[in-house]
Amino acid sequence: MQTANTLDVLRTQVAKLRAGGETLALVPTMGALHEGHLTLVRRAREMCDHVAASIFVNPTQFAPSEDLDAYPRQLEEDAAMLESEGCALLWAPDTEVMYPDGFVTSISVSGVSEGLCGASRPGHFDGVATVVCKLFNQVRPTHAFFGEKDFQQLAVIRAMARDLDLTAPRVHSIIGVPTVREADGLAMSSRNRYLSEEHRTAAATLPREMKEAIARIKDGQEAAPTLAALEDALLGAGFSSIDYAVLADAASLAPLDTLGNSPARLLVAARIGGTRLIDNMAVEQDR
Ligand code: PAF
């Protein structure tokens, strides 16, 4: 695996990989890799000739009050994992390369970025959209892979890529990969490592109660009382606060009162022991 830290080296390496017209996947990450990221790399390898991964802890998607400095950094360990999964190229720029002096541009995607995490983390999705647009322009992949765990992020990136004409011929496809879960159902996340043993055990209440709520909604119950019961169960299990628990249209992310005919999603963000966990699951009427 080649590692590039500058744009010149990146472009030379990408040109070599694509010299015969090969497809190139990009798996953007902030490092602290786990099985969820490696699943993205494996999916990318199945679909593309070569895989490039990026590791960049993007400061512009963290609010001043958030955990940028505490965010885990383990570049060597991550690089070894990517290499053993067959990644051909690691793009690991530092902040000065990504945001040189005088950088003044920000991409803002309205609509899908506004509620949910957009409401509790103002500016977060501007930071994500801007850095992902830069990553697409830097690497010029034919395909890009993102986890469905960050469902709203995926919707924001799809909208940004569509509106800025970054899809064909630049990035032909943006591929969402289903969430990878621990044995007890907790969605894998780099943030799970912040949980104490006690909070880690209690955190599994989140996917369990979400499944319970989905079963009730599919049974015809209205979203509001079902989601209120979900919030109570989480608070009872040791979560300290709930940022949101919402039934939403899976495409527009607009909140829904009841399940209709189009695909819906249950999305939750909740805090436990100072760690903010997010999760989402499909809610579809059985046919
Ligand atoms: O999901 C992430 O790890 C980040 O938000 C991303 C897409 C790499 C942008 O920094």
Features:
287 residues; 10 helices; binds pantoate; 38% helix; six-stranded parallel sheet; single chain; 19% strand
Shape: globular
Extended strand count: 9
Q: Spell out the helices and strands N to C.
A: EHEHEHEHHHEHEHHHEEE
What are the segments in which pLDDT stays under 50 over at least 5 consecutive residues? none
- How far apart lie the N and C ends? 46 Å
Structural class: alpha/beta
> Whole-number average pLDDT?
96
Classify the helix fraction into a percent range.
Answer: 25-40%
Evaluate the radius of gyration: 19 Å
Number of helices: 10
Strand count, sense and closure of the main sheet? 6 strands, parallel
Beta-strand percent range:
15-25%
User: What order do the strands of the largest sheet run in, or round the barrel if closed?
Assistant: 1-4-3-2-5-6
Query: What ligands does this structure carry?
Result: pantoate
